[in-house]
Amino acid sequence: MATTTEKGVEDVLFEQGKLPQEKVSLVKLEAINTGKPVEELILDHNFVSLEDLTAARGELLGIPYINPTKKPINAEVLQLIPEPVARRYVLIPFNYDKSTGTLSVAMSDPLDLQVVEFIERKSKKKIKPYISTPQIINQSIQDKYGQSLTTEVSQALQEETAWYS
């Protein structure tokens, strides 16, 4: 009788060459002995970064990984989801495809269907969720929304200056 085991994030990391077999065996055994989740043990031992772990989780779930801090985000795209909503649900929109009406959103929990549906209702756009780490998303929210506001203020000041010139 063959036994089937469910593929875990540790197996994906092994396949990617980021976690050697002996460490995969170690965390699986430790998870059985301690009852701690494998992902927690991998991070506790600093075997891989949170970013690598999140990307592997995304691959396992069939959800693409994205680092929104490395992407330019148009101010119009940011306006589709207000900053307080982005902060509350730890997500950030990073692309809008007008041809399909799809808004791509980096999320710390892309499996939270209630949040996805809420964002779809409020933005009136179809949401394509991507996975990312909470830290990266929060950094991106701080950088991108702040940058958008600075750009808007600069433009308003230029228009105001031009008006009085």
Task: Evaluate the radius of gyration.
Answer: 20 Å
Net shape: elongated
How is the biggest beta sheet arranged?
3 strands, mixed
- CATH T-level topology of the largest domain: GMP Synthetase, Chain A, domain 3
The total domain count is: 2
Order of strands across the biggest sheet? 1-2-3
Helix content: 55-70%
Q: Uncertain runs with pLDDT below 50, 5 residues or more? A: none
What is the mean predicted local confidence, pLDDT?
88
Estimated structural class: mainly alpha
SSE pattern, N- to C-terminal = HHHHHHEEHEH
At CATH level 2, the architecture of the largest domain is 2-Layer Sandwich
Total count of helical runs of at least 4 residues: 8
Number of strands: 3
Q: What is the CATH level 1 assignment of the largest domain? A: Alpha Beta
Beta fraction? 5-15%
- Give the end-to-end Cα distance, rounded to a whole number of Å: 85 Å
Please identify which CATH superfamily of the largest domain we are dealing with.
Type II secretion system, protein E, N-terminal domain
Summarize the structure.
The chain is built from 8 helices and 3 strands; from the N terminus they run ααααααββαβα. It is mainly alpha-helical.
What's the SSE blueprint?
Elements: H1 9-15, H2 21-34, H3 38-44, H4 50-61, H5 75-78, H6 83-89, E1 91-97, E2 102-107, H7 113-123, E3 126-131, H8 134-164
Parallel strand pairs: 2-3
Antiparallel strand pairs: 1-2
Can you give keywords for this protein?
165 residues, GMP Synthetase, Chain A, domain 3, mainly alpha, 56% helix, 3-stranded mixed sheet
